[in-house]
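tool=predict chain=A
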Amino acid sequence: MKRKIIIFFYICLLFFLLFHPKEALTGVKNGLGLWLNIMIPTLLPFLILTGALLKTGNIRKLLKPSAFFWKTFFGLSPAGAYVLILGLLCGYPMGAKLAHDLYIDQQISRREGEYLLTFSCNASPAFIISYLSGILLKNKISAVQMILTFLAADLFCMLFFRFVVYRGHTVDSVCVNKIKKETYQQDSIGVILDVSIMDGFETITRLGGYILLFSLILASISFYWPFHAQSCMLFTAPLELTTGLKQIAGAPLPWKSRYLASMLLTSFGGFCVMAQTKSVLENSLSLIPYAISKCLNASAIFLILVFSDIV
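tool=predict ok
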């Protein structure tokens, strides 16, 4: 049944492409522009460099001196700390990508990988400062205040999953694949870099495909929507984060309502980001902890903003 629904959905998109090429082309151009102008410049270098660092096998050595800190305060191994740091700095879906890679590389356990999905997959500070705060909200709210609000919600999710869901047991011992480790050590820097570049382009191309697909979905819904345009935004904004935030910023709503909606959507990430996350996980880690945490994160953001009288 699920397969039939998906096939029917693909056929509908194909008909939209064939019978409304102008509207479809506009949507695809918007998605392609987002991919070329934002995702590739900001994410691809991190994908290449983190991939190269992972293949050297030195992540544990780099963070081992601070192992006690990460274990005590975050319930993470040194390798898990690496995922958290880069996930917070690089934004969607870098945390999920690194959690998958380190799990496949046997540097973290499945439990720790899924635990990391609950609080290391967020919008990057650069996205919040430049796009959300600067361009859309015109710096009416301090970007630092917004980042601290997101971090507070992440902390809540981390504590909930660490002590309520996983009952304090988030790190399992793993058996490092010695053959794979020796292979990495024998590879030259050039070979490691070549492989990392190809892996990075493969990942960024896959993520770009999801952006194009969701941009096409957004265009088709907007074209066929029979009711008022404001009601359409309720369905289209959560599809893709950047486009959804732009729709909210241009909506004829009170400023506080636009700010609250923007914060909620940024914390949730949108369904395109969720599909991208599912893609980079490649069925090795479950998407369920991530999906639950995104809903929990958005709820925490709502409560923080409402009860702190920010909105």
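DSSP finds 16 helices and no strands in the chain. Residues 105 and 180 are 8 Å apart (CA to CA).
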